[in-house]
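FORM 7B - TANDEM STRUCTURE REPORT

SECTION 1: FIRST PROTEIN
SEQUENCE AND TOKENS:
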Amino acid sequence: MIEQMIGRVADMSHCIFNFHDPPVDSTLDTCPMLDWNTDPPSQIMRGGQLVLFGARQRLGAAGH
């Protein structure tokens, strides 16, 4: 997603980037995984537990 937005920039010398990563394991970097096949989207449950999506899933167990 970021690469696509940067690709539209004509002159990178006029860009300012402000990225914010929430603290690891703060719960700010996770959210319920949603099933987009329902209307409205519903939270996905497996084995009676809410499936979470966040930095841990994207970055791996080590968090980096």
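SECTION 2: SECOND PROTEIN
SEQUENCE AND TOKENS:
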Amino acid sequence: MFAHLGKDFKRHKRFYRSITSVGIPVILQYLVSYSLNLVDGIMVGQLGEESIVAVGVANQSLFSLLLVLFGIANGAGILIAQYWGSRNNNELQRIVGIAAFSGLFVTAIFVFLVFFMPEQIAKIFTKEQKVITLVASYFSIVCWSYFGQALSIIFSCVFRSIGSAHIPMMITFVSLGINTLLNYLLIFGKWNVPNMGLEGAALATLISRIIEAVLFLQISFSKNHGLKMHLGQLFRISPTSLIRFYQTVSPLVASELLWALGVTIYMVVYGRIGIESLVAINISYSIQNMALVIFMGLNESCSTLLGNLLGEKQQELAYQYAKRFLLTVIGISIVVSIGVLIAKGLIISQYQISSKARLLTDDLLTIFALMLWSKACSWTLLMGILRSGGDTRFVFLIDAGSTWFYGIPVAILAGLVLNFSVTWVYSLIFLEEIFKIALALRRMLSKRWIIGFS
């Protein structure tokens, strides 16, 4: 058995190297990010409920910008992975330039709105005047950090797409560590630093984002790194590059925004079922996100490796590795599911919630564990395999179609009309993953997703 595994590793060394060089750093990056964000939330929580709500309102407002930035970054990553594989560094740098300028332009519009209209934006989410005042104060400082965040999101994707996922991982560790330390100092006024409260949290975010962006740019333009960016090349944007970029990015941005709207509708339905249902959903989602981090990393490694292979014109090997990634994800999902089933009781016991909410959370996590394989497979097929080939329009149609023509109608019918329990509504919504798998698997086997850009 071990001899067979050794031969398999030698034969498919590049496949396993992709998982270790891209997947594992991404998994660690997300785990550390989630953990330190939790610590930051606890520190802000010491300031009172109004401060918690104010930061929540600001982050909810930021959510729409982040979705657009992730769409731009992921679209750029698809092209960059192929250009890196074909060693077309000039076109690669043009795509980086288009992505960076596009991200900064969208961010500038958002910053203008939140800086000059903070109270009007806050009133969309709350009517509490004290919270609105805190949001305006917080926005006046933290909004300038969004430029650094935009560059960080885009360059993180750039480095992952060329197989250097360890760079954004290390930069994120540094940035989050600085942010956590500054939060402690500025929020509470430690070590002779002025006590700034919520404004201190905003300033800590601004400083850490600036440092993060500077580190990304410094490494990107360093001659010691394989990327070797040249400032002049970023401005040599051709019409062909622009058309190709926006044809790839547009479906991704639309898909992200429609997905976010769909999730919002799901949460409205869950909220209407009852407060215990909403509590159970929120707790189960936080636990699910930690479990899904593994598959985020695997999808990044899948997309990067397949994109590089397609850039090298190795279509058949890319197809074979796509199937191998899918089988690997199924195997890992079974292990993760068992882990969730074993740990769920201990995790739920840490929350001070009613017995009904506790039982509902337990049921939801059981359903999640039993259906995790379907979520992992649909993610890999759509985000890891089909996207890597540039088949973003098909991904958009499957993603948006399953949510808006199945998921949302079923949620409204089951939750608001038929008054089903939250466990039944959640289970029925989860079945949309089966539809995604059926359509995406057929697309993968047809090889029509392989679209070369290089």
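SECTION 3: OBSERVATIONS ON SECOND PROTEIN
Residues 1-5 have pLDDT under 50 and may be disordered.
DSSP finds 17 helices and no strands in the chain.

SECTION 4: SIGNATURE
Preparer initials: ____
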